[in-house]
Design a protein that fits this description.
The protein is mainly alpha-helical. 67% of the residues lie in helices and 6% in strands. It has helices at residues 25-43, 53-73, 80-103, 108-134, and strands spanning 15-18, 21-24. α1 (25-43) packs parallel to α3 (80-103) and α2 crosses α3 (80-103).
Length: 135
């Protein structure tokens, strides 16, 4: 079931199994954390800007991004609890940047977060694509 896990059978080691269902380990950390943190930021009326937003959001985004990149080359490099933990961190970073974005579209922190993920992901995607084309 794609909506619970986007992984193909050869990547099921990146999932938790709950009966007949598989749930992506990182997504299990990202989405509940993102939703809870975003609600908390609005309920607590968090400040719209903080001097450390950029550094904190990038620091929260980096572990999951690096873990994902390493995982493209070494699929069994990390454990599912680690993937879930980095997903929680990513969820917190995404919640903060989305919180700001929903009130002031395309803030610098969101654009920097996008640039970080792109700077890591794009080369990895290109290298793995080239490798798959070679067979």
């Amino acid at each position: 079931m794609f909506w619970l896990s986007h992984h193909t059978p050869e990547e099921w080691h990146r999932c938790y199994t709950f009966g007949p269902f598989r749930v992506c380990a990182r997504c299990l950390g990202v989405y509940p954390t993102l939703c809870a943190a975003l609600v908390a930021l609005f309920v607590l009326k968090a400040p719209l800007a903080h001097p450390w937003d950029l550094e904190v959001v990038l620091a929260l985004t980096l572990p999951a991004t690096i873990d994902w990149a390493i995982g493209r080359f070494k699929p069994h490099a990390f454990s599912n609890p680690w993937r879930t933990f980095t997903g929680v961190l990513l969820g917190l970073g995404l919640a903060r940047s989305l919180f700001i974005h929903l009130q002031r579209p395309f803030p610098a922190v969101l654009l920097a977060q996008f640039a970080l993920v792109t700077a890591v992901a794009l080369p990895v995607i290109l290298v793995t694509y080239r490798r798959s084309r070679r067979g």
